[in-house]
Amino acid sequence: MVDKVKKIWLEGELVDWDEARVHVLTHSLHYGLGAFEGIRAYRRSDGRTAIFRLREHIDRLLDTCKLVFTMPRFTRAQIMDACSLVVRENGMDEAYLRPLVYVGDGAMGVYAPDNPIRTMIVAWRWGTYLGKDALEQGIRTKISSWSRHHLHVGLPRAKMMGQYTNSTLAKREARMAGYDEAILLDTSGQVCEGSGENIFIVKNGRLYTPPLSLSILAGVTRDTIITLAREEGIPVSEESIIRDQLYLADEAFFTGTAAEVTPIREVDNRAIGEGKIGPITKRLQQRYFDAVKGSDDAHPEWLTFLR
Ligand code: PMP
């Protein structure tokens, strides 16, 4: 259960949590067209709160809106300010932020181009996404029987609501089979990503992650980790990975705003490396936490401090 906070930003207004309701004929509820984001604000070691890579998340939100014809009536600057406002007005020092742009009620039927496009932003407290011990002990994963959308079927650059039925089916399948998370391949068998995370493996000291030409989301955390790895002198290759390489990796981990940097200790009942967090994963996880909430201010462009 999500713990209530006081206010939700809906269409330019702060409204009480219990009043932030939508009509049952909300078009997106029926057909899934719309865009969303997941963003975290952290309390840093100096006590100040900063939203991590807000600009990049809102850019991706607007890219999604362009791809699926749901441009909001608010500008990028207005949405960014509203994200800060919602954290501040709820008196939160840490938050998960969920901006969402959806097609409101009006006409029904798949084609409803004149329905209003509505925007909302909710903030809530969200701890470790994949469970209490996930960040330290790593998680058990399963290759999904579901494929990631073929490029003719979906829009990988879009964080579009409707595409998440694919993620939900994969996640449920994995959890019901006793695993923590799913890994999805594409229809030709290339490793793509988790249900809500990008994936990396380490082999012989080199980091590998699937390229953006495959059916994967262009993760903000993925980009952060590639940057930090290069700064650490760890070579990074964005290239296709097949299932065998995953099983034989020295280390593997997921990245995501919610999942942060989560080690993968097992894939399909095969231990990855020594079956626990590996040294390169540990180093990058530490660098990540230093960047998002520690004392690493080397990338001021990544931080939006609450005023
Ligand atoms: N892939 C999918 C399918 C996701 O839902 C997410 C979470 N947004 C990611 C990857 C990771 O993206 P990010 O690092 O921007 O949160």
Labels describing this entry:
binds 4'-deoxy-4'-aminopyridoxal-5'-phosphate, pyridoxal phosphate, 307 residues, D-amino Acid Aminotransferase, Chain A, domain 1, D-amino Acid Aminotransferase, Chain A, domain 2, nine-stranded mixed beta sheet, alpha+beta, Aminotrans_IV, eight-stranded antiparallel beta sheet, BCAT-like_N, 8 helices
Computed structural class: alpha+beta
Low-confidence stretches: none
What's the CATH first level of the largest domain? Alpha Beta
CATH topology group of the largest domain: D-amino Acid Aminotransferase, Chain A, domain 2
Determine the CATH superfamily of the largest domain: D-amino Acid Aminotransferase, subunit A, domain 2
InterPro entries: Aminotrans_IV, Aminotrans_IV_CS, Aminotransferase-like, B_amino_transI, BCAT-like_C, BCAT-like_N, BCAT_family, Class-IV_PLP-Dep_Aminotrnsfr
GO cellular component, one term: cytosol
Catalytic activity: L-valine + 2-oxoglutarate = 3-methyl-2-oxobutanoate + L-glutamate; L-isoleucine + 2-oxoglutarate = (S)-3-methyl-2-oxopentanoate + L-glutamate; L-leucine + 2-oxoglutarate = 4-methyl-2-oxopentanoate + L-glutamate
Pfam family, one: Aminotran_4
